[in-house]
Amino acid sequence: MSYTLHRGDALTVLKSLPDESVNAVITDPPYNSGGRTSSERTGRTARAKYVTSNSAHDLANFPGENRDQRSYRSWLTELLTEAYRASTEHAVAMVFTDWRQEPTTTDALQMAGWTWSGTLPWIKPASRPRKGGPKQDSEFIVWGVKGSLDHSRDLYLPGHYIASQPRKGRVHITQKPVEIMQQLVQVCPEGGTVLDPFTGSGSTGVAALREGRNFVGVELSPHYADVAEQRLHAELTKDDFDLAGPES
Predict the structure, then answer these.
(1) How far is it, in rounded angstroms, from Cα 59 to Cα 204?
(2) Going from the N-terminus, what domains does the chain have, and what CATH number goes with each?
(3) CA–CA separation, 178 vs 195, rounded Å?
(4) Predicted confidence (pLDDT) per residue in 36-62, tens digit
């Protein structure tokens, strides 16, 4: 297996990818959410939005979190359109979102050409209760397909996922659990290529390599690109060591 990590703007890089060169798109874009008012969504950093004030970790911010609703939809539509062009027939796209941006995300997915096929809940047990109402313990994965699903594959995935955000070894504000990502990357045929235009700390890529898929990622933040590079390289090196066996 192999990986390629591009450093730079996602849309710019996506436009350079060849037609029909990837087999699945699995990504966690900046939600541009996290507030009840426009000023709360556009006037605060990612850390201020998504990390509680008494949090023990001190993780780096990431860019791209200050778009208003209309510019977010336009931007995401253009990105998913380029991802659609770069994907093969039967490719599946999976896009993480929260409850505020779920309607906008489904619009963008469909306007980009994908056939919207459902929304998968990701339930996080380690979340705070909300006094006076239901606790906000879920994010969502909007998914669609280019053309139709490949029904020749013997693949059956869950309709929801349950896992808390990583605590031990957490290196990103919105880091996703690798155990969930390992299930999601199976929508890509074995030996195929998974694309993640918002690589972050590299969890999608690590999962892809573990599951026998190639990976193409893009990351704008130099800090998180370095983190992802380290994690991807370590995963690839580990696989090489496992194949060779321990030294005598």
Answers:
(1) 19
(2) 3-244 (3.40.50.150)
(3) 16
(4) 555 655 555 544 444 444 444 555 654
The candidate with the shortest Cα–Cα distance to 112, out of 135, 129, 133, 91, is: 91
Strand partners, 6: 218
The CA distance from 149 to 11, in Å, is 26
Q: What is the pTM of this model?
A: 0.83
Which residue reads 């703007």 in tokens? 9
Name which of 120, 118, 115, 119 is nearest 146 in CA terms: 115
Give me the amino acid identity at 101. Answer: Q
- Total Cβ atoms within 10 A of residue 163: 17
CA 208 and chain centroid, separation: 12
DSSP the chain: --EEEEES-HHHHHTTSPTT-EEEEEE--------SSHHHHHSS-HHHHHS-TT-S--PPP-S-----HHHHHHHHHHHHHHHHHHEEEEEEEEEEE-TTTHHHHHHHHHHTT-EEEEEEEEE-SS---BTTB----EEEEEEEESSS--TTS-----S-EE-PPP-TT--STTPPPHHHHHHHGGGSPTT-EEEES--TTSHHHHHHHHTT-EEEEEE--HHHHHHHHHHHHHHHHHHHHHHH----
Distance of alpha carbon 72 from the chain centroid: 16
Tokens of 166: 């990583």
Q: Using one digit for the tens of pLDDT, what is the confidence trace for 90-134?
A: 999 999 999 999 999 999 999 999 999 999 999 998 888 889 999
Locus of tokens 């109402």: 133
